[in-house]
Amino acid sequence: MNTTTTAHRPDHPETAADDRALRRMQFGWYLNDWANAAFSATVLTVFLGPYLTSVAKNAADPAGDVHPLGLSVRAGSFFPYTVSFSVLLSVAVMLLTGTVADRTGRHKELMCGFAYVGAAATMGMFFLDGDRYLLGGALLVVANIAYAVSVALSYAYLPGLAAPDERDAVSSKGWAYGYAGGGLLLIANLALFEGHDALGLSSGTAVRICLASAGLWWALFTVVPMLRLPSRAGAAPRRAAAGPDRPTAGSLRELARTLRGMRDYPLTLLYLGAFLCYNDGIQTVVSQASLYGSEELGMDQTSLVVAVLLVQIVAIGGALLLGRIARRYGAKRTVLGSLVGWVVTLALGYLMPAHRPAWFFALACMIGLVLGGSQALSRSLFSHLIPAGREAEYFSLYKVSDRGTSWMGPLVFGLAYQLTGSYRSAIISLLVFFVIGFALLATVPVRRAIEAVGNPVPERL
User: Fold this and answer.
1) Residue 455: DSSP 8-state
2) Count of C-beta atoms within a 10 Å radius of residue 263
3) What is the C-alpha to C-alpha distance for residues 392 and 234, in angstroms, rounded to an integer?
4) Concatenated DSSP letters for 154-190?
5) pTM for the whole structure
6) Nearest-CA neighbor of 392 among 156, 63, 108, 146?
7) Cα–Cα separations (whole angstroms), residue 125 to 111, 142, 407
8) pLDDT by residue (tens digit) across 121-179?
9) CB 104: neighbour CB atoms within 10 A?
10) Which helix (H) or strand (E) holds 65?
């Protein structure tokens, strides 16, 4: 039974069995977001950065430097440098793996395989203590690359899980599941960390348990997509290349053809450019919000943690709300509206008084409201612009624009602070990404772009 083909043909009369099978696959896909969001929320956003930095400082020489691979690095810079290194590596691995997946049809096997590699590396962070900063760096690189590749491959399933007019709702629901799963484990871990004295645990042990729990959560819930998703994503099976080519060698040639072939779809590239720009602004706001809150607005650690939780919780409703709005007004208009919301949020953040936690929490709620929806709808909109059978390749390129170019926003943020000495000037400088992204997206003729790649056009865009 080819349920993915049915999802691409809304005029096809589905049987009850078809409908049940499709819902089972959708639920498996939702649970994949639920599973891997634990790594993003607990590990990357909250616990690993400060803890790995403290471990690196334990290993530092009297000048405050550590020496990975013979290089002198300030202990306080080890974590961000390691994240940047993992992002650069993940770009190459994502592109190659996406091509291998489309060439072999083993999307699920590769997606779940990378998920379990990432989960194992995350659970290994339990052994990160004392001065084992090199162990922590290695585990972070492996886990972050595995996370990026697994997520990119999961995106490739979206075109086959919903008819064109239903894709915004399915993508938004998946995003909401992710924020719910990540937020639920984060709440439990924060409770464990705050109560570590009562449990007879040191703060370091509590953090290591929290880190390992994210890997366990990731591994446990990945079982559901492993059982419910088909091996191949998308609707159009592709014939393997003739001849005795090795998969990797053939996939490298296929990747080169894909990159050259994207010139045949300039409107898809234009959309990618728009997404690259405004999403870089989104990622920078998310990554620098805690710094802005602590350094400019005088928020303490507890207030920052509460704000992170508020973003996670409100983003669930935000993703679902914007999904409903897109059903009525179309995904493109809704994303454009969300970008206006980001501009308003930045402006209010710039004007916000210091030492007012209630105002900072309100800002966190505004970020959560537009965060989930803008990203979920961007994902579903891009799914219409992909030639059938190349879902993993194109979504790997999409994730490159999500992760591989996220240096632009932090660079502008850092330069603005260096020139002005004010984090308020730095935060308002990010407006340029949303303004340019809005302008580029507004010029994309989405209907023509969908027709150009040969996909059915949704009723509302």
Assistant:
1) P
2) 8
3) 9
4) HHTTHHHHS-GGGHHHHHHHHHHHHHHHHHHHHHHHH
5) 0.82
6) 156
7) 22, 11, 26
8) 999 999 998 899 999 999 999 999 999 999 999 999 998 898 888 999 999 999 899 99
9) 17
10) strand 65-66
